[in-house]
Specification:
CATH class of the largest domain: Alpha Beta
Number of helices: 13
Largest sheet: 8 strands, mixed
Strand content: 15-25%
CATH superfamily of the largest domain: CoaB-like
Strand order of the largest sheet: 12-11-8-13-16-17-18-19
Structural class: alpha/beta
Helix content: 25-40%
CATH topology of the largest domain: Rossmann fold
Number of strands: 19
Shape: globular
CATH architecture of the largest domain: 3-Layer(aba) Sandwich
């Protein structure tokens, strides 16, 4: 297997933590690819991991001793976990089992890997690998969301056949895919000091005090973009509709409910930002008037009069000193045609379009795929987890932004 389009060696200190699962065999290839990209790799293993692959394998591939014990008497101060954590530029837990994910989410530290997780101050990646039922369990997803809110990045899992004979999400990402994400992560600072405004989530258009019109947007893509922009060095303002997500730290959060409130919040900030990413699913129509009391059920049919909401994306693009403006388009058919029409009609710099109403990706999903368009340009991002997808999109936006501004 080869890793394509790796422009320059990463040249990082990579600490690879291997947990107990059949996917541990993939970690050997990951070590080889990282070494090929110029990384200095050191490996730590749980006791369970050693049941699947011998530490000798990783010692031979990495060229360094493999660490398995929390308190290492061979270390000068017997604090090998602290020394390793300070040495690392990045930590990758691959495979990350449901058990290790749960321990990290709750701050437990009863083995070398979980203790390193708490001691590390560098970026941390997890590449989950587990049975599809374990992956889909609510408590596992809650643990992942908690870790994401703390700034932990997840690569995968992928869908496919599993060692247990079942099929679904839970397969560890391929080593080449992990390597690509680490390369993207190594390009830190692509938006250093750039001011980025992002809108995310749905709006609520109230009919009466207890009812409203909304949509299925979860806000996950917008929040992933906010995290990716922060990691790229940007100063981020996030205008968010009502979502069940923890906002990333170190940004300005503006919470809204209605399309009118989002319009006011975005337009009041847009002039002070260099880039605007409109990832929110803003209602196109809103009730003309909200009833002051709950509407009672009197007749079999009733009518609701709606009026068109203001076009936030187009208004931002029309500003005298408009920021680099990126819109989103969720389409159920003719995606390419509608996205390109939106690019021209709204006069924005870039449109990121995705399918909705299909089996995978889009609303409510942890994964998405994007078709990105700009003047005389197009890029395709295949179906993947929204966090690494957001990093790829942020890198593309940074490239186009810098080209436009001749940086």
């Amino acid at each position: 297997m080869t890793v394509k389009n790796l422009e320059t060696p990463i040249k990082k200190h990579v600490l690879l933590a291997i947990c107990g699962g059949i996917a541990a065999y993939k970690s050997a290839e990951l070590v080889r690819l990282l070494r090929k990209q110029g990384c200095d790799v050191r490996v730590v293993m749980t006791h369970s991991a050693r049941e699947f692959v011998s530490p000798l394998t990783f010692q031979a591939l990495s060229g360094n001793p493999v660490h398995t014990e929390l308190l290492d008497i061979d270390e000068e101060n017997a604090m090998g976990h602290i020394n390793l954590a300070r040495w690392a530029d990045v930590v990758i837990i691959a495979p990350a089992t449901a058990n290790t994910i749960a321990k990290c989410a709750h701050g437990l530290a009863d083995d070398l890997v979980s203790t390193l997780f708490l001691a590390a101050t560098c970026p941390i990646f997890m590449t989950p690998a587990m049975n599809q039922a374990m992956w889909n369990k609510t408590i596992t997803q809650d643990n992942i969301r908690k870790l994401e809110s703390y700034g932990i990045s997840f690569i995968g899992p992928n869908a496919g056949d599993q060692a247990c004979g079942e099929t679904g999400y839970g397969r560890m990402a391929e080593p080449a895919e992990i390597c690509r994400h680490l390369l993207a992560e190594s390009k830190t600072g692509v938006l250093q000091g750039v001011k980025v405004l992002i809108s995310a989530g749905p709006t609520r258009e109230y009919i009466d005090p207890v009812r409203y019109i909304t949509n299925r947007s979860s806000g996950k893509m917008g929040y992933a973009l906010a995290r990716a922009a922060l990691q790229a060095g940007a100063n981020v303002t996030l205008v968010s509709g009502s979502v069940n997500l923890a906002a990333p730290t170190n940004l300005e959060l503006v919470q809204i409910e209605t399309a009118a409130q989002m319009y006011t919040a975005v337009l009041s900030h847009a002039g002070n930002n260099d880039i605007y990413i409109g990832a929110a699913a803003v209602a196109d129509y809103s009730p003309v008037a909200m009833e002051t009391a709950k509407i009672k059920k009197h007749t079999e049919q009733t009518s609701l009069i709606l009026h068109q909401t203001k076009d936030i994306l187009a208004e931002v693009a029309r500003l005298p000193n408009a920021p680099f403006t990126v819109g989103f388009a969720a389409e159920t058919n003719d995606l390419h045609a509608y996205a390109q029409e939106k690019l021209r009609k709204k006069n924005v710099d870039m449109i990121a379009a995705n399918w909705v109403g299909q089996e995978q990706g889009g609303f409510d999903s942890e994964q998405n795929a994007l078709e990105v368009f700009w003047d005389n340009g197009h890029a395709s991002f295949a179906m993947m987890d929204k966090n690494p997808l957001a990093k790829l999109l942020i890198n593309l936006i940074a490239t186009r932004f810098n080209e436009k501004n001749r940086i």
